[in-house]
Amino acid sequence: MKLPLPDTMAARALALLVVGLAVTHLVSNLFYATDRESALLTAGGGSVIQWVATTGAFADAVAPDEWSKVIAASNSADRFVTITDDPVVDISTGTDWRGAALQRELGRHVPAERLENYRIAFAPTRIVPQALSYWATQGGSETPKELILVSLRLNSDKWLNVATPVQAPPQFFSKRLWLSMAVMLIAVTLISVLIVRRMTEPLKHLSQAAEKLGTDVQGPAIPETGPQEVRRTAQAFNVMQNRIRRFVEDRTQMLGAIAHDLGTPITRLRLRAEFVEDTGLRGKILRDLDDMQHMVASTLAFIREDAASEPQATVDLRSLLGRVCDDIKDAGGDVELAEIERWVLIDCRPIALRRALGNLIENAVKYGEAARVSVRLEAGRVLILIDDRGPGIPRDRREGVFQPFHRLEDSRNRETGGTGLGLAVARTIVCAHGGDITLNNRPEGGLRAQLRLPRIVRTAAEPDKGKDAAVSSPVNAAGKYRFSWKTAGRDPHPVAKGRKMPIQRGLDTCLPEGRTTQWKTL
Length: 522
Hints:
This protein has twelve helices and 16 strands. Among the domains are: 9-165; 312-459, Histidine kinase-like ATPase, C-terminal domain (Heat Shock Protein 90); 462-521, no CATH class. It is an alpha+beta fold. One of its GO terms (molecular function) is ATP binding. Its main location: membrane.
């Protein structure tokens, strides 16, 4: 099972840093707790060894019948003393690391020749019943859980036994540990967020520039800042972008020059064709020249579109589609635009996008009898659907129709098959906007062209109220007027200009429903 990881480099670096610091803090606290426990144990063992040596010397100096007084004087809340025939400390007691630490401490305080008279161990209180009973009778004194046991052989072969509680080490998982960890992690996280964000900012610029390069090779160079590796990457990216830009410009200039230069010989041939006496032959030559002239013009248009630098603007897609559909209707095309209930404001090159939409809808009308246009919204994207009632396109030929001068119609007649540049121009425009066009046959018959655009600025039923706002659109839904409106907490006052026709024709799409308007004709 793979652990879920943050999706961004900054988040991953921050998570790695925080987790690493938390683990380091826990491990260091574990070592600290272990060392502190060892220090408390050896300190307690050293003090009890010294006390046992002193008490043993005193016990050897008095008569055995005085030992009871020595024991009574020695017993206290933190010490239990007995004198027995056998040692309380068994040889096998305390074989863990704490017992070994006490043995080392014993060697530090007792001369080597007297070590055989001492036994020291670390043991739970429950294995020393006398000590357990003793602390149970001590009022207000809590029975210790663990003891340091020391047995000393007296000169009379009796054993002086001392049991003293071990000072409890601090709890590892204590409130203090969690508090210190929380304070450390919060402080480190706040500082790390600033540092990591600053370190990854150049990568964000690089990612944005790489994404934009696919739609606009004329974009500005990215700043060469950050660590050395990032600076080198940014520098290499800028060099690559300049090379691509020069390649595109050189190709465009070359093709444009070729297409332009072909115009002169075509014109000369047209003039010379007028001197051909055979009327039928002259007509064929002129038709061929017309085809050549049209192909040259189409090629120039395609090249101009590929290298276009029209500025972007925020427009209402509903109005833009309305004009395109109305223009085709005026030319006799069967076009139906489904109702779009809300404003869809997008960033685009309006003239270029209108041309792409026009090419797609005209193709649907020309080859599919009729076109039905609708709009869907998909999580930050807008999807324009253009359906027709034609025969569709075979699956293996759908991608080929986007190639320049590729035609499905085999007769090579420009009137029936066109020049094969319409869909190529449309895809070039849409790709320059960061979108794409796909073609699919519908189950009920006909072809569906799906045009996806990624940049939705805002969707709304009506403009914002109570604050300054401005929205512009090149055309209204009827396709007859340019208009703009501004509002500052009051009803908008549109300004429109166009042909002398009833301005109210486009009111339903130009302004939100229910607004009282005042129109000024220019």
